[in-house]
Specification:
It contains 1 helix and 38 strands. It is mainly beta. The protein is globular. A hairpin with a 2-residue loop joins strand 30 and strand 31.
Length: 372
């Protein structure tokens, strides 16, 4: 009897410890395990891709290792540790996106590289979960941004950058992948595209581009290019958008007055006072009437509040997130609920040059749980 009671007591104690662990590690807090074995160089791009075994987080940049794990410019997080993908890029990965062009789901990566494992990969490559492959003829110069947009004929992959050609095809700074070749998008742009975003339906529908071209902000409606709201007075480097709900709009950040702005279909204006320095990444979390816009970059203030490089806007006010970080954030992505069964819930992943998040150490990447 006594041993049975001790067994029950031990079980209850263990359950209490597990509950306390969950309360402290799974509530809205920084989860820094992911950064305990950080990369040897900063991360520049993040994406979620499901290769058939479930969604996983991928990080890209100029690094060669995550901790002791060899990982040339790209790595996958399995929930416990990082893994390389057998790559050997000769440049930096600047953008990544998951897309199925009809040949199966794949992760597309782009940047300033020209080779992978001594094979030609002109600024863009495709990972299907097992193998790397070329994406057509690639491009003659850097690719900064990737996006998926459906004009009504089905989703298509778009690339934006400093390039002007793909093989023998003129593609001035923006191109569409047709499954075999890269095609021009209208007359293209007159300067480098550094950001892309899209809305597929409603009155805001279109492919949006930002960068170093005339007006710095443009919209493709499937037939022609236009400059919403007259554009901005400086470079746009990040775009995210949501077509409906309480925060409906196109959000852009960069090196222009106010550093973050919203296009609502009629006006392009700084978002609730803007930021005091560059916004380099924006992510809209769509929860209907409970949506939020997350902004990250180099800033120390947004609107009327102090916020160290990471803040959220709920439609009426700014809030600092988790005490912020000590250096620049360059990329963000939302990790889906099912990506980690040990601690489910929406998680915002941030990456950049930082070493600390809030009061905790986390080398260049960290996770913030933001919802149940």
């Amino acid at each position: 009897m006594r041993s049975g009671r001790l067994g029950v007591l031990l079980f209850l104690v263990l359950m209490l410890i597990a509950t306390i662990w969950w309360l402290f590690s799974c509530r809205n807090a920084w989860l820094t395990e992911i950064g305990s074995l950080g990369p040897d160089e900063p991360i520049r791009a993040l994406a979620i891709f499901d290769d058939g075994s479930g969604p996983s987080l991928y990080a890209g940049g100029f690094f060669d290792h995550f901790g002791e794990e060899p990982a040339s410019r790209i790595a996958r997080w399995d929930g416990r540790t990082w893994h390389g993908l057998g790559s050997a890029f000769n440049g930096t990965i600047l953008s990544m996106i998951a897309f199925d062009d009809g040949t199966g789901p794949a992760l597309y990566v782009a940047g300033n590289f020209t080779e992978n494992r001594s094979r030609r990969a002109r600024h863009i490559a495709r990972w299907d979960g097992e193998h790397w492959s070329r994406v057509g003829e690639g491009f003659n110069d850097w690719v900064y941004a990737l996006a998926v947009y459906d004009h009504g004929a089905g989703p298509a992959l778009y690339a934006g950058g400093a390039f002007t050609r793909s093989g023998n095809v003129e593609t001035p700074h923006i191109a569409r992948w047709d499954g075999t070749h890269w095609q021009p998008v209208g007359e293209g742009l007159d300067g480098t595209a550094k950001a892309l975003g899209s809305i597929n339906s409603g009155d805001l529908a279109g492919l949006y581009a930002g960068g170093d071209f005339s007006g710095h902000f443009a919209r493709w409606d499937g037939e022609r290019w236009e400059m919403p709201g007259g554009g901005t007075d400086g470079t746009v480097v990040t775009i995210d958008a949501i077509g409906d709900g309480s925060l409906r709009g196109v959000y852009l950040g960069g090196r222009f007055s106010g550093h973050i702005a919203r296009w609502d279909g009629s006006e392009l204006a700084p978002l609730n006072g803007g930021a005091n320095r560059e916004v380099l990444a924006i992510h809209v979390v769509d929860r209907g009437e409970q949506s939020s816009v997350y902004a990250a970059g180099r800033f120390e203030r947004v609107g009327e509040i102090s916020a160290r490089r990471l803040a959220s806007w709920d439609g009426s006010q700014w809030q600092e997130v988790g005490g912020g970080v000590d250096e620049r954030i360059a990329a963000m992505v939302l990790m889906p609920r099912e990506a980690d069964a040990r601690c489910p819930g929406e998680r915002l992943v941030v990456a950049g040059d930082f070493e600390r998040v809030g009061r905790r150490a986390s080398a260049m990447i960290a996770i913030r749980r933001i919802a149940n």
